[in-house]
Design a protein that fits this description.
By secondary structure, this protein is mostly beta strands. The protein has three domains: 17-153, Immunoglobulin-like, CATH 2.60.40.3780; 162-261, Immunoglobulin-like (Sandwich), CATH 2.60.40; 265-406, L,D-transpeptidase catalytic domain-like (Beta Barrel), CATH 2.40.440.10. The protein is built from five helices and 28 strands. It has helices at 17-30, 40-51, 189-194, 369-378, 409-413, and strands spanning 57-60, 72-77, 81-84, 89-94, 99-106, 111-112, 114-116, 122-128, 134-141, 146-153, 162-165, 170-172, 178-182, 196-200, 206-212, 218-224, 233-238, 255-261, 265-270, 275-280, 283-289, 301-307, 310-318, 329-337, 344-347, 365-367, 384-388, 392-395. A six-stranded mixed sheet has the order 21-20-19-27-22-28, with no helix packed on it. β9 (134-141) and β10 form a beta hairpin. It is elongated, with a radius of gyration of 30 Å. It starts with 16 loop residues before the first helix and ends in a 6-residue tail after the last helix.
């Protein structure tokens, strides 16, 4: 699919009926033997060309703005009028001769790229027309003739937008997926997924997988088969403009983002030995005692492979926000979020008696101030946290943060709408 580039502005607005009559007359005089020009339908079509209002149009020689003495040129465009249907390619057909080039530009200077058929009779855009957009069409044939038309697509009843993670031009850890959350439901998942192109600097194998986000919105993530290689450059080109998401509305713009993969490191949390270990390039960088969630109830910690979502520093943690009543209300330092449900790794000096000995927290992984500060300084958003042990209340859910690493590669691939 082609990208949109800057080009010339739109032609002037449509002329009135009186002005159309004035514009048509010179062309009648130029070609008196073309009796078709005297017919009302043909006159309207010709006027459409002159006034840039779309539909079937004709031009040639001096009257059409082509080369001196060029023969007449007649084209038809599949979209016309002020309420043209969006979400389909623009096609320009030539009655006689062969097309040389066609340009289709929008009111913002964007351009729909396309290709002329082998027989020169038709040009088709590689992208679909976007809702609520005015387009100008200009065609030239191999004989030097030219023709113009214009149309405007109907405005969408609803516009769908999206939120991307990670942020643009960021550096993240080897476990960070590319994640897209949509403002409105996506019924046409396969059609949307076809327009999401991921490229990497080293041809990393990966797949999209759909789910319902923790917020209740539709979400699709792109996960590599294995953890990313350090130094990988990743680009998303979401060519969604003109795509209908279904009941959630139309996309009216494209989206792009780029990010890089940083240090090759991960964190292992052993709930049974009560230890947290940071490894970089397979070597232990830090090994500290900790106390995780109290087993046997809702205060237990989640096990599984999760991903560091954010480094939030000092935050206020209140138990009622995670369904634990009024058990605590504390300002907590060096907070590292692991799930949407409120599981963190952080400093917990009030629990010092249990570090390395027992799991006695309200669900988080707690460490001393000094150890938490060092871990906080060393980890990066996107680092995997691999949590193992029997003292857990279960495995982290797929949408509770980034839980996709708890699925096998085959299970993850099956969540693509294109499988």
């Amino acid at each position: 699919m082609s990208r949109i580039f800057a080009t010339s502005p739109l032609p002037t607005p449509s002329l009135s009926a009186r002005e159309i009559t004035t514009e048509v007359a010179p062309l009648n005089r130029i070609r008196p033997r073309t009796t078709l020009l005297a017919a009302p339908a043909a006159a309207l079509a010709l006027a459409a060309l002159t006034a840039c209002s779309g539909g079937a149009v004709a031009a040639g020689g001096k009257g059409g703005g082509g080369e001196q003495g060029a023969p007449p040129m007649r084209i038809s465009v599949n979209l016309s009028g002020e309420q043209a249907r969006a979400g389909e390619p623009v096609t320009v057909s030539l009655a006689e001769g062969a097309l040389r080039e066609v340009t289709v530009t929008d009111s913002k200077g964007g351009r729909l790229e396309g290709q002329v058929s082998a027989d020169g009779k038709r040009w088709t855009s590689s992208r679909k027309a976007t809702p609520g957009t005015a387009y100008a069409v200009e065609a030239r044939d191999t004989a030097g003739g030219s023709a113009k038309a214009a149309f405007t697509t109907a405005a969408p009843e609803k516009v769908n937008k999206l939120t991307l993670a990670p942020g643009k031009n960021t550096t993240v850890g080897i476990g960070q997926p590319l994640s897209i959350v949509f403002d409105h439901p996506v019924k046409n998942k396969a059609e949307v997924e076809r327009h999401l192109k991921v490229t990497t600097s080293n041809r990393t194998e990966g797949s999209w997988g759909w789910m319902q986000d923790w917020s209740g919105k539709d979400r699709v993530d792109w996960r590599p088969k294995e953890y990313w290689r350090s130094g990988t450059k990743v680009t998303l080109d979401a060519q969604l403009s003109g795509v209908d998401s279904g009941s959630g509305g139309w996309f009216v713009r494209d989206y792009t983002t780029t990010f890089s993969i940083g240090r090759n490191q991960l964190v292992k949390v052993d709930l049974d030995s009560h230890r947290l270990t940071l490894l970089r390039d397979g070597q232990v960088v830090q090994d500290v005692p900790m106390s995780a969630g109290t087993p046997g109830g809702e205060k237990g910690s989640w096990r599984g492979r999760t991903v560091l979502m954010s480094k939030e520093g000092t935050i206020n943690m209140r138990s009622e926000t995670v369904g634990l009543g009024d058990a605590y209300d504390k300002m907590v330092d060096y907070s590292m979020r692991l799930t949407w449900s409120g599981m963190y790794a952080h400093a917990a000096p009030w629990n010092a008696a249990y570090f390395g000995r027992a799991n006695k927290s309200s669900g988080c992984v707690g460490m001393s101030d000094a150890d938490a500060r060092t871990v906080y300084d060393r980890v990066q958003v996107g680092d995997p946290f691999e949590i193992t042990g029997s003292d857990a209340k279960g495995t982290q859910a797929l949408n509770n943060g980034y839980g996709e690493w708890n699925l096998s590669w085959a299970q993850w691939q099956s969540r693509s709408a294109l499988r």
